[in-house]
Fold:
Amino acid sequence: MALGEFELIARHFTRPARRAVLGVGDDCALLQPAAGMQLAVSCDMLVEGRHFLPTVPPERLGHKALAVNLSDLAACGAEPLAFTLALSLPQADEAFVAPLARGLWALADRHGVDLVGGDTTAGPLNLCITVFGQVPAGQALLRSGARAGDELWVSGELGDARLALEVFRDRVSLDAAAFAAARRRMELPEPRVGLGLALRGVASSAIDLSDGLVGDLGHVLQRSGVGAEVQLDRLPRSAALAAQAAEVQQTCVLAGGDDYELLFTAPPARHDAVQAAGRAAGVAVTCCGRIVDRRGLAVVDGQGRPLGSLPRAFDHFA
Ligand code: ADP
Ligand code: MG
Structure:
């Protein structure tokens, strides 16, 4: 069934605000961060064919659109408050919009975030979310805080989203169970919000992995004015990925993209505190390298030999 614009907003995207002062329905929403808190704001767009395949179930698309945004708050150690949704849809088709909204609300409810506004238009399928979070003034985790001597850490496992993409591209084959698991990692990423909060005051820098480790770590190194040595064998990966050819593994863990894990640094004296943060958040954390004075990124194999060339990071315009 097709819906009108306002009917669609009212039916699927309007709920009473819990944390916001004012939610959907007026010209602006009103947010009030707690005393002493700074507002953390981030925006991410998902475009069909670019960021997701037409095969993605709409419920998972709703989840992912919010998840990738919450992941940015996680990387800053910010607590999610609210988000807006700008939605461009080819048709206001109930069979598509209802599950999309369901996936979105399920994740929003788990993190207690309010949908406080947005914009809805006909056009190519495109979802753009802006999230608002709060973080104690001066305590946000930034890309610029890595220092020589820091340990380099990563949460969860890397590369499964890319592995699933390689299956869709017919370059890799997996058994049905392994493919379903990898596909979940691609379509239902879990933003590491709890870990980001637990790392405040512990990590020296952080970023979320959206474009692949090589590229995203490169942003941290550049902003921090340091270099890094990463141990390839220590980068955590699923059994399904570990069973692939070495070249596939390297591409997936180093340049996979769509992992939405946190990559962060901390002084060695905080090693136990990082592990405690991981336990508190219920997320595995793995020390996979260190920050060095010498600029640049070296990825070394099990024998300590640097890889000759690194897979290129994802760039929308390259
Ligand atoms: P305006 O004309 O002021 O831009 P709209 O008519 O576009 O307002 O939207 C009406 C109300 O519905 C506003 O409060 C807006 O924030 C909200 N809204 C529009 N689209 C969405 C959406 N996809 N999700 C949530 N709220 C939305
Ligand atoms: Mg509008």
In short: Residues 65 and 269 are 37 Å apart (CA to CA). Residues 58-76 form the longest helix (19 residues).
